[in-house]
Amino acid sequence: MPNNRDVARKRTLNLIRKFKLDPGYALEYRNFMSDVIQKGYAEMVPQDMLQRQDGKVWYIPHHAVYHKRKKTLRVVFDCSSKFQHASLNDELFQGPDLANPLLAVLLRFRQEPIAMMADIEGMFHQVRVLKDDRDLLRFLWWPDGDTSKNLQEYRMTVHLFGAISSPTCANFALRKTADDHGHGYAEEVSRTIKCNVYVDDCLKSVATEDQAINLCKDLRDLCSQGGFKLTKWICNSCSVLASIPDEYKAKQLKELDLDREKLPLERALGVQWNIEKDTFIFRVTRQDRPLTCRGILSFVSSIYDPLGFLAPFILKAKQILQDLCKRKCGWDDSISETYLTPWKNWLADLEQLSNVQIDRCIKPKNFGQVEKAQIHHFCDASEHGYGSASYLRLTNKEDEIHERNKWNRPRRNLSTGDIVVIVDETAPRNSWQLGRVVKPLPGSKGLVRTVLVKTKTNTLQRPVSKLCLLMKAEDQG
Known about the structure:
elongated, EC 3.1.26.4, 4-stranded antiparallel sheet, 477 residues
């Protein structure tokens, strides 16, 4: 590698001006770097290595990235910085993608009623770099963050944010931990580490609270044997949360009274999760963007929906953008009134998304153990778009099939004494007969599907689908 120390030095010295303009920024930056050094994630370059000349030395510039939602600052190392047509990331081998697919992790998270989530603390920083390779991860910083002192040379001892090899190395180390130490635990523990972790987030769902309590403990123990700390635990069960030591709980849960206070909203890999109701919710903030093709594309692309729940809604906006592109509108040209009105109407409808709630768990409550599962797919297409829907058909140990009403409210069972109108599709509605239910005929599951109805002339047996409830028995004087 060429000697790029001067480039790194100039970029580090540029920080002084930013520090003077924003003391708060300077304090957070210094605290972050101090934490990295104190925890042993970085070390001063040994004196006998300062003049290393074998081409295995590289200086990485660094800068801060501010997380708007978490309101925290993180220092990121610019491994893509080039000098003489070379950069560290150009020379690193990225390695195979060992990360689980995002969609797969989220779908597994929906399988069972008890859901829990945790975070691997500083995952990349828990994986060491070989000593001979550390000089490729050098950076410049001031002792104690004091910019009045001379810059010193440090080097990372662990994998860092910004290097293309870090995700693969960290994932490999985590999986190796499961392989090397998993034999002392139930198979489910190792499988969770291998199949239910996305980058540094662990999402898991299980059938019972006892399973969750045991799994939480075993996961913490197994990960700790590889130097990983599973922390920031969240669960939709108060009993499970009560079993987790406070130091491992998510910050917002540590002071929560589990007996009196509601569980908070949280994000599961970016998807908003109402833990108390155990539903996925959607809150899209309306942002001011230019009324241009570029502005529309920017806004539509900013809506995060990995599970595709909002696809039918987003399709309308995509159709507007598609029409604009067909008409070869410039990216920064103002859109015409023809498209301005439907676009503004679509933006106005955004507020309605807050009313949408999707059950996190795909299984019905109290359904029991699933013995069979089938997936049924339906697809269709038109000139405007493609549509598809997938349904899960579940059968439990009692050979019962999960029944679900088609987007209608559950109906009350007809009772003795109810007054009904008998549907007769061969006659005008104003001539349909009135009748009184004299005997409900419930099925094996207690649902009334057929009743005996007494009219003026006789008694009829009719399915409830052919009856319209006019007045409940308890409402009659």
